[in-house]
Amino acid sequence: MRDQTTRRLALSIALTLGFVLIEVMAGLRGNSLALLSDAGHNLTDVAALAITWYALRMTAQPADAARTFGYHRAGILAALLNSTTLVLVAGYIFVEAYKRLLSPGEVNSDILIAVGLIALLINGVTAWLVYRGSAQDLNLRSAFVHLMGDVLSTLGAVAAGILIALTGMNWLDPLVSVLIGLLILWNAWGILKESVTILLESTPGDIDTAELVSSLITVEGVRGVHDLHVWSISQGIRALSAHILTDDMALSDSKRIQGEISAILDRQFRIRHATLQLECSGCEPLLLYCDIADQSLPAARG
């Protein structure tokens, strides 16, 4: 499955890079900012696909002494980088569109329409190649969003070409570029936000910690939960650590409690990597989220 994905990514890179060269030449010949801005976006797609391809190979490496959680965060870093480049591309498009709106140039609508239709086909194919698995992998989704942004932006370029041919309003070309830039920003924001959320090890948005604690307390023998931490290693891998307050019991009974808690976490919250510390006394059961900041400071000297 992973090998198939990397092959599809490699094919997408080749198709996109070849078309970038065609689109740049056509944009210069037709004096179309919409085509040139779309070519710039496509060029970032080449970089995004290359980063995604490399990160996908990195995440396949097993955990080792240096990376005990494995290399799953490589995909999140790739998604963060890809979404950041989207923001930069959008900013460049806005600047160039502003210049063109102040002084619209003559646009060859025939070239704009013809190249736009070819771009729509190429971008549609590459987006389809990357789509599989993108819902569960933020790294792949960042590449897919890049490509779908191209599909929609080329639709806009074709529409601009048709309207310019009918009306002669050349200012429609930079206006479409502004709309393309806004679309890119909208797509980038969701990926950027989710990437930062994962890197900050925030609680996944669909997990209610109060509900989680209530579910764990239903397990027979559990008296409280504290020092709770829930985070995502990558989009599809969640982890949890917690102290579980129990009655004073034999080790064999505590194993039963751990098994029931693990089943609840998996079934209700899709958490499959849980580290549980069972204890019967000596901690503060009312302190759900323990502050670990003080533990990283050196001890004070008298």
Distance between the termini: 60 Å
Oligomer: single chain
Strand order of the largest sheet: 1-2-3
Number of E-state strands: 3
CATH class of the largest domain: Mainly Alpha
Helix content: 55-70%
Tally of distinct domains: 2
What overall geometry do the principal axes of the alpha carbons give?
A: elongated
Largest sheet: 3 strands, mixed
* Count of alpha and pi helical runs: 8
CATH architecture title of the largest domain: Up-down Bundle
CATH superfamily of the largest domain: Cation efflux protein transmembrane domain
Order of helices and strands: HHHHHHHEEHE
Q: What proportion of the residues form beta strands (DSSP E)?
A: 5-15%
Structural class assignment: mainly alpha
Low-confidence segments, given as residue ranges, are 293-302
Query: What integer value in Å does the Rg equal?
Result: 26 Å
Instruction: Predict the CATH topology of the largest domain.
Output: Alpha-lytic protease prodomain-like
pLDDT averaged residue by residue: 79
Description:
The chain has 302 residues and is mainly alpha-helical. It has 2 domains: 198 residues, Cation efflux protein transmembrane domain (Alpha-lytic protease prodomain-like); 88 residues, Cation efflux protein, cytoplasmic domain (Alpha-Beta Plaits). Helix content is 65%, strand content 10%. It has 8 helices and 3 strands; from the N terminus they run H-H-H-H-H-H-H-E-E-H-E. Strands 1-2-3 form a 3-stranded mixed beta sheet. Helix 2 packs antiparallel against helix 5 and helix 4 runs antiparallel to helix 5. The longest helix has 30 residues. It is elongated, with a radius of gyration of 26 Å. It starts with a helix and ends in a 23-residue tail after the last strand. The C terminus is likely disordered.
